Amino acid sequence: MANKDHTDPVRMEKIVSLCKRRGFIFQAGELYGGLNGCWDYGPLGAELKRNLKEYWWRKTVQERDDVLGMDGSILTMKQVLKSSGHLDGFSDPMCDCLLSKARLRADQIEPQDGTAVWYSGARHEASGWSTAHEFAVLVPAGKDAESAKKTARQFYGQFMPDKKVSPKELELTESKREELTGTTRFNPENGSLLTEPREFNLMFQTKVGASADENDPNAVAFLRPETAQSIFVQYKNVLDSNRVKLPFGIAQIGKSFRNEINPRNYTFRSREFEQMEIEYFCHPDDGMRLTDEWLEARLCFYEEVGVPREKLHILDVPDGERAFYSKKTYDIEYEFPFGIQELEGVAYRTDYDLGVHQQGSGRPLEYFDEESKERFLPHVVEPSAGCDRTVLAMICEAFDEETLTDEKGKDDSRTVLRFVPRMAPIKVGIFPLLKKNEEQVRIAREIQMTLQPWMNVFYDDGGAVGRRYRRQDEVGTPFCITVDFDTLGENDPANKGTVTVRHRDSMEQERLPVEGLLAWLLERVR
After folding, report:
1. CA angle at residue 11 from 8 to 13, to 5 degrees?
2. Long-range contact set of residues 331-335: C-beta below 8 Å, sequence gap at least 24
3. What is the phi/psi pair of residue 412, to 5°?
4. Cys-Cys crosslink for 329: which of 33, 294, 347, 391, Cβ 3.0 to 4.6 Å?
5. pLDDT in tens, 179-205
6. Whether this model's pTM surpasses 0.85
7. DSSP state, 74?
8. What tens digit of pLDDT does each residue of 294-353 get?
9. Is residue 71 a contact partner of residue 254, using CB atoms and an 8 Å limit?
10. Is 84 exposed, middle or buried (0-12, 13-18, 19+ CB in 10 A)?
């Protein structure tokens, strides 16, 4: 649950507005009313997300000798998810509100006290209409139990064939009243009775093959609910084909799908999301030590992408709250504007995963250590990060509004995204001071052509330079280059061949030679 002490809904509204206005994130299918729990990344959002994934891959795979990469299939065999436990256990207990039809997680309903007023039906004397349905309303302690009638009439009114008749005209048949403490059978929003809890599977199911028989269980497949299972299933193939020794990891970035009942908090909880996941295979004796090492490595990573350690919270998940197979789990949480929520889990999963797949497939997955002559089933440490959640954390952390005072004492405000340069969607804004000055435009275009193969840049010649700076501030561009009259040597011959480089955060400016720009920028945006 979110920590209410850290919520700032106004700030979150501004962030969501900026993300749409400047092309970071759009509601999927917005033209047709929107698909709940699904999001499209616009040009700047796609660039920001790509920067994150590429940096994660570079730090996790490219710069390490002990981690290999793979890209598993999204469609997943039923047998894989049967062995992993998802088929039977990947569900939530759900209740439906009899009045509003809202669906609630049964295990997340807060216990309530009050008077339950039960009804067996209702009738409309003038028309002779009646209905018999059991219904109840929970009236909180201290409120008049008669207030339950309004809610009950709304419930029974939905069964009336003549919708012109007001529910206020209905006569209710009350059957009993009872005092309840700690009940979870009623909707906290309106007091309406809920249905009995039933399991709701969170996986998206599909059929494989154009002529697949509806009743053929072998034609059933699922969109994967996590990226981990393809790694476990291919562990032996990766081991045998790459001549690696324990400890080693397999990393993957990819889409996962969960039929979330209540997607919420913008992109934080979605039905389609991307994971950045590592399964690190090791000797059973090393699991606890490596879990702590991976936790520290992941904390360092977040600092490098602009999420400071002081905004992160480490939850050492206690016994009884961890998955039954986990010996140690850390949740890395961030102070979002909607509360403290999980970014990543670092879990020591023991040998559970390889064990269930060895049993389910009937194929041996033990590792043989040539030096010790020991044969054993490897244990697994899993650092699993949400890509979309990290993107959202970076945006939330970068968002800033500040009031500035110009030379004349006039206040001005600017919105700025203070991304670390390596994450910024646009690294450099390139401006000719005057778009009608052919020489300034020529040099600016040459700079653009020089930098484009190495980084994402944006050429802008519209409006005053100050306005162009503000537009780049709002999307997080760390540097802006202006080709001006000094570049042409018209004001000071000593400055010929140099440009003005303006820094986003400090708004300070310096002059740099054109020929040295690429090296100077690469040093700062990598």
Report:
1. 110
2. 332/295, 332/298, 332/299, 332/302, 334/307, 334/389, 334/393, 334/396, 335/6, 335/311
3. -140, 150
4. 347
5. 999 999 999 989 999 998 887 778 888
6. no
7. S
8. 999 999 999 999 999 999 999 999 988 888 889 999 999 999 999 999 999 999 999 999
9. yes
10. buried
